[in-house]
Amino acid sequence: MFKSKFGWIRLAWMMAVVAVVFFPRMALSGDRIEILRRGVVRIYAVAQVPDYLVPWAPGNSQEGWGTGFIISRNRLLTNAHVVSNARFITIEKEGDSRRYEAQVKFIAHDCDLAMLEVVDESFFKGTAALKLGGVPALDSVVTVLGYPIGGDRLSVTRGVVSRIDYRGYAHSGVDSHLVVQIDAAINPGNSGGPVFQDNVVVGMAFQGFSGMVAQNVGYMIPTPVMNRFLEDVADGHYDSYVDVGFQYFPLINATHRRALGLAPGDYGVMVGEVMRAGAAYGYLQTGDVLLSIDDHVIFSDGRVDLDNDRLMLNEVVERKFKGDTVRLKLLRQGQEMKVTMPLNTPWPYLMQANQYDEHPRFVVFGGLLFQPLSNEFYEALNSKSVTLRYYYSQFLEEELYLEHPEVVVISKVFPDPSTSYLEGFATSIVDSVNDVKIRTLAQLKAAFEAPAEFYVIRLVGDPQPLVLEAKAAKEARDRILKQYGITQEAYLPGGIVPPGWAVEK
Amino acid sequence: MAIKNRLYCLFAGALCFLLAACGTLSGAAPSVGALQNARRSMLRVTVTSQSYVFHSPWQQRRPATQTAIGVIVPGGQVLVTGLMVANQRYIELETLDTQEKQPARVVVVDYDADLALVEPLDAKFLAGRQPMDLSGDASIGDQLTVWQVKPNGDVIPDQGLVTSVDLSLFSLNNFFLTYRLNGSLQYGFNNQTLPVVYGDALAGLVLRQNTSGQTIEVIATPVIRHFLKDAQSKKYKGFPTAGFYFGALSDPQLRRYIGLPESLTGIYVQKVLKGSPADKAGLMAGDVITRIGDHEVTNNGQYNHPRYGQTSVVHLIRTGSYVGDPLAMRIYRAGKTLDLQPVLDHRQPDEYLVPPYILDRQPEYLIVGGLVFLELSMSYLREYGNDWVSDAPIHLLYYQQNQDYLNGDHREKIVIISDVIATPFSIGYENLSNLVVLKVNDQPIGKLDDVRKALKTPVNGFHKIEVQQHPKELFLDPKELPQIHKVIEQRYGIPIPPL
Fold first, then answer.
1. Taking the CB of residue A16, how many other CB atoms lie within 10 A of it?
2. How far away is chain B from the Cα of A268, in angstroms, using its nearest Cα?
3. What is this model's ipTM?
4. What is the CATH number of the domain that holds B169?
5. Which chain B residue shows the shortest CA-CA distance from A252?
6. What pTM was estimated for this model as a whole?
7. Per the CB < 8 Å rule, is B427 touching A454?
8. Which of A105, A461, A484, B216 has an alpha carbon within 20 to 30 A of B55's alpha carbon?
9. pLDDT in tens, B110-162
């Protein structure tokens, strides 16, 4: 279980007021920039963001811009967050006043990358494709090109590589991958822009801290992450990252090491929680000691030697794809064992991940709006009960997804004569309807479609049932839909729960 | 007996009687002579208390001193609010007219109803004082007088009109009758307790005042009467409970589903606590209580009180009855009417999975190799600050809030590892906190003492501690414990409770 929720301030890269200031004189050699700039484009996107509390409505429009770069004929790379929820994308290149419409070819929200193509290929006339290089060394100089706030034309900033680490990606909110920290100024609008060293791209500027938190801390997505994305989409589909699906605990404590039968030394981590929905389930057990991963010795803090650096052991799995396996050497009750396990993408994480390009899912019945718990929905709520907070934040830790893979919440009680006494049930979690356990939103819809005189809804932690009389609900239906402008009674496609999880395991 | 959610419906009734009763203003302003007498009926009570930091239970807080104006009641005792004397170390009484002082002790304290009786160590101290009788019950529209006392002992009467008689939240799940007065107390003089009188007799004590809303909440006479009567018995028993949760039955759809006849009203029983009086009497979740005692119960949990009108049945059960009283209930269950008679009992704080408070004693803890074990309590959660409901760890809050619904694990308490005291032996463990302990040495942990017992039998030479959260397992070496404990005692000065 390598992904983690992290709490630092996310920069709104794309939303900015353009201040009128003079463009600073370029300090770089003109020739080099003249070539590289032909691979850099400016991307404008009109996005539509759904309001999760009005899930049937189309959503609010937002406009923003970012940067992108050409990697080959009709393939551009940028950040996923530049083109998320986009309805209309145009791109612009230096020295050409036209705007060209572009489309998202692939988008990977878990690593904040997207590939675009341009509708009119004449756009590429006079452009140059940029080459991807390796991971730059610490303290080496890098140059950032892009369209940050502060002017309309291309901007160049320069800095050094400050740190190479494994960090959270703010776009999804739950994923961590390799990042390179640089001290070149990165500002809103730089997103998706190339970072150069020796005339090749070594990274893509993507996130940073607000100036109120830290100075000169900008992050770029390094090329291993970009190359992985390109390799993943080579088959025409993005499969997303894979994960081992367990948490590990560093074995720093001397007594803990002895209790597990380990000699003193800097090796081995203990397997903590093994996720039921993860790849390791059935392969690893709590208390196992991991010694190596794909022949990389694991140090007691969970790091491995990789690419002449000491990186989190996750990095080994990071470079793999759906269906790949990983080889682990472990100690179980003093016995050395070898395990080869196939990797997957553990779905319960997605409940807490930011969702993009998704239509909110919901069911309206009996004057009640039902929605599955998700990051967007949770953030949209004004007040959150302790129970709801518990189900959201402990969904993985206490394995609440085993009973409720989709946590179905009564998000709104539409005031109506038929719902006069139901307001107190708002933000409750549905446990069952007519004694049928509700594990998914689709099951809820089916339960309401089954003929009955009463629909008795039992709620988590609240033993008083919510009773809907079928007759009353039917009578109120058209009235409520009209009154609140509800254009659609349900939207079910999508969702994060794999088909096998709809029934109890 | 507790009200969980959808509470609002339980207290709506009393307000509609406001207008009807306003015409009957009574209770004249006190005369100068009455104020002179008042000085002889009251004492300044100064309490110095000292509590513990629940996150580090060996650590005492700074002693804090508060003052109250106590009322001398018949029997030579002084009535103050209960939280005044919580964790008290020293109590001193002072006469208002002659400024004589005398140490005192607590006779009875009830933290549920927030009332306490103290008495001087030397009974002669109260000679010549004038005890105050309890007044009759006040009604909406009555004029009550709050007695504020200046530092020099002068009494300042402040009048307020009873605008509602209603149940208010005292502490966790404790709802009792209060008078709400309009007005504010400009001169509190930092006294935590202030007497409220009706004519010449005691009507209540100020519970709290809401300065922005200009209202004063007063612990009502029936609650004080209940307390004083109980206090006269040999052993104080406390306010009774029946041991069930209920909700409103106002929704016609729910009523039709239950099949409740139109002629009946009542409350829906949500949950019956195991082993509670209601459970022993056979009450079941899903039952509808239609009558309690001689009163019909409305769909939102009220009955018609002869004086206050629509009042929550919680008052009928908790203040209208005493521990040991049978409570006649009429039940509607699956088309049949049943009569049940639970014998009411008091639910002690210790009987909660997560105790609502731990007062007047040092919180228990164990230190095992630097791991701090303690039992989860509300006092622990409240230390997360004013906004503890947001800031305390969500899993602990959830357990607290749903403690009566967490079934099947037979735990008496939730034992947690609250913290790890950093020593050379705890390297690698030092960042762990708020882990729920499931087993120690393969033995299930249902209370702190179980940890002590389990430590007597290490597994394969180590103490194995299983927790609900990541990392799931921790280990200690029994042979190292004396050494670790010595380090903790020497470096931190933290006493290690015997294992």
1. 16
2. 13
3. 0.88
4. 2.40.10.120
5. B428
6. 0.89
7. no
8. A461
9. 999 999 999 999 999 999 999 999 999 999 999 999 999 988 888 889 899 99
